[in-house]
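Fold this sequence, please.
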Amino acid sequence: MSAKKIRVDLGRRSYDIVVCRNGIKRLGALIKRLRLGTDAVIITNPAIKRLYGGKVKASLASAGFNTRFEIVPDGEKAKSERHCIRLLNNISKFDNSRRRIFIIALGGGVIGDLSGFIASIYRRGIPYVQAPTTLLSQVDSAIGGKVAIDLAVGKNLAGSFYQPRLVFSDVALLKSLPRKELISGLAEVAKYGVIKSQGLFSYLEKNSNKIFKRDKNALQYIVYTCSGIKARVVEKDEYDNKNIRVILNLGHTIGHAIETAAQYKKSYSHGQAIALGMLCASFIAKELNLFKGRDHAKIKALIKKLGLPTKLMALKASDIYKAHEHDKKFIHGKNRFVLPVKIGKAIVKEGIPKALVKESIMSIYK
């Protein structure tokens, strides 16, 4: 296994991100060193259990762990109050005085968010491990301890900050990822390039073919690079209250609104919505003379090259605007947008005029 390690330095809540290739056999041994407990509750969906459940169970068994699988449906609907309460009840029935339970989130961002939220509230907090199986979760959502479920009015409105004890990203698991899901994850990778790394942005421009061929070196490079960027940001602003971590939300203000307006259906994946949200943010920055028009064009060209949409269809602009007003990034009634100022650097700006926000949404219909 060619593994690379990143330490997320958060004092007592510090943990490692392990980025490897074909390393799933070592998962049990890595967890054993952490002394989290004796009984692993693995939260996953049917497809991922079928693909990797046996390997994960064998790795854990070889390290002496008992295992129990809890299955949730595929997609955003798993992050509902109903499934959260169902899992809490199932885990409580499995739990007893002889067991020392911890949770493993085996799946994408939805499973990671749900599992981490459950870990944060069951018995006022039990350990959990992130074992992300999608590109999006490996580069972004599995790292940093933001965990949540969705409410009817908006995404991620019931949540906690609760750090995992380990993030185990094996890029070999991305081999079975549907092309659409790989493309969805590339939106977050492009985001990191825009906000923090011109080098990563250029790498994506030049190496998209390698990524689409699932070249393990290319995948490990982008997962490791993005993980490192996010780790350093999280270290500076773990609880998202210093106006530093919010930089990671480029494209998410309008992106989440698109997902909400689409009622979390598959018409727009998270990555597709974020790509369109990035274009809106880039448009706003350009109109405010913070960002060069040619750099806006470069972002649009990269998004297209990565197979992501540059135009929005089948949703009402008014529904998107209305949904964006429920965004958690509003402060004292003012909207707050992450805006690029050059490739590799972004800023946070409050109080963007309503007319310009609406114009930015309209720009992705053209």
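The chain has 13 helices and eleven strands. Residues 8 and 232 are 7 Å apart (CA to CA).
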